[in-house]
């Protein structure tokens, strides 16, 4: 699939001016002038959609900067489709007519899933990986704010999320978190799906969730804890902070996996790669240190809430 990076490569090949483009955040979108000393470069601001970036060229070609800027900005506008702009307008809460949605986002009526990819590497390279992965499928993928949005009709949602994450980390060797919410059928549910996916990423980071694929509907506990009043959180911290601080990393991991496994001894011991009796010993130690038996559902519930509050406060 032909994309903006392909255009930049073709442009670079057709002119005798080496240039690079860097986002305002410092991410390199394209570079072919690494052999030019920094003192010999000039930087020209450009706008790619709503994002500011900079073209870097040799000082001796500064007279061509305006033309280069014009060509790149206009090509970006051409390739940055009206479909993607319609999507962004919806996500930003702008007024978008139903006719415009129907004309520009026809796949929405079929029931779409919105994935949000949070990557700690080059977002443009990650976007290119996604475009190649779904080269022959009717999906939309665009960088928005600090994340990548992928919108399409997917039958096995969790499997696609795992595949996207695997493709990004295997190609770029960087961390990648993916979140998603409910299926969207119109502009209102699409905006809600985006907000939910965004909240997933926030909750995942705030509570140190180990899963790299986050389903909004499976974070009920975290959502409840996040909404607890500051006063109650402080009370829980006063009761549990020192106890949790005294646990080593092995015991913290045990708590996380035991809760994630639904208080199932066999499942948790399998995932921890330890003998069942070893896990029982650790659970007994937790009870001795905190007074809570996490094999008991009610006590485990209170304990888990306190644990998440402690995680949030770290």
Properties at a glance:
314 residues, alpha+beta, Alpha-Beta Plaits, Arc Repressor Mutant, subunit A, 3 domains, 13 helices, 16% strand
Question: What report would you give on this structure?
Answer:
53% of the residues lie in helices and 16% in strands. It has 314 residues and is α+β, with helices and mostly antiparallel strands. The protein has 3 domains: 4-79, no CATH class; 82-218, Reverse transcriptase/Diguanylate cyclase domain (Alpha-Beta Plaits, 2-Layer Sandwich); 228-313, Orthogonal Bundle (Arc Repressor Mutant, subunit A). The protein has a 5-stranded mixed sheet, with helices on both faces. A 4-stranded antiparallel sheet has the order 2-1-4-3, with helices on one face. The longest helix is centred in the middle third of the chain and has 20 residues, at 187-206. The model has no long low-confidence stretch (mean pLDDT 88).
Poorly predicted segments:
none
Shape: elongated
CATH class descriptor name of the largest domain: Alpha Beta
Kindly report the name of the CATH homologous superfamily of the largest domain.
Reverse transcriptase/Diguanylate cyclase domain
Radius of gyration: 24 Å
Could you spell the SSE succession in H and E letters?
A: HEEEEHHHEHEEHEHEHHHHHH
**Strand ordering within the main sheet:** 6-7-5-8-9
Helix percent band: 40-55%
Q: State mean pLDDT (0 to 100 scale).
A: 88
- Measured by DSSP, the beta-strand proportion falls in 15-25%
Describe the sheet with the most strands.
5 strands, mixed
């Amino acid at each position: 699939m032909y994309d903006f990076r392909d255009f930049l490569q073709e442009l670079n090949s057709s002119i005798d001016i080496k240039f690079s483009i860097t986002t305002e955040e410092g991410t390199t979108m394209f570079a072919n002038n690494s052999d030019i000393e920094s003192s010999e470069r000039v930087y020209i601001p450009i706008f790619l959609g709503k994002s500011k970036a900079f073209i870097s060229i040799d000082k001796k070609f500064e007279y061509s900067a305006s033309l280069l800027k014009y060509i790149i900005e206009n090509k970006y506008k051409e390739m940055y489709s009206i479909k993607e702009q319609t999507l962004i307008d919806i996500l930003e809460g702008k007024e978008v007519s139903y006719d415009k949605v129907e004309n520009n986002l026809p796949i929405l009526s079929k029931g779409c899933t919105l994935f949000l990819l949070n990557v700690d590497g080059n977002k443009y390279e990650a976007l290119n990986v996604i475009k190649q992965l779904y080269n022959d499928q009717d999906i939309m993928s665009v960088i928005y704010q600090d994340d990548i949005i992928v919108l399409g009709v997917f039958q096995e949602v969790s499997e696609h999320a795992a595949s996207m994450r695997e493709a990004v980390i295997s190609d770029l060797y960087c961390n990648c978190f993916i979140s998603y919410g409910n299926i969207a059928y119109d502009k209102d549910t699409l905006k809600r799906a985006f907000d939910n996916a965004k909240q997933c990423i926030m909750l995942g980071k705030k509570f140190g969730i180990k899963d790299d694929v986050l389903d909004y509907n499976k974070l009920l506990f975290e959502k409840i804890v996040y909404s607890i009043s500051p006063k109650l959180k402080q009370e829980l911290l006063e009761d549990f902070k020192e106890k949790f601080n005294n646990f080593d990393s092995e015991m913290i991991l045990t708590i996380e996996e035991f809760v994630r496994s639904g208080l199932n001894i066999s499942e948790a011991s399998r995932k921890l790669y330890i003998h069942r009796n070893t896990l029982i010993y650790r659970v007994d130690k937790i009870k001795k240190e905190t007074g809570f038996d996490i094999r008991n559902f009610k006590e485990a519930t209170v304990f888990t809430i306190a644990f998440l509050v402690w995680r949030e406060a770290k």
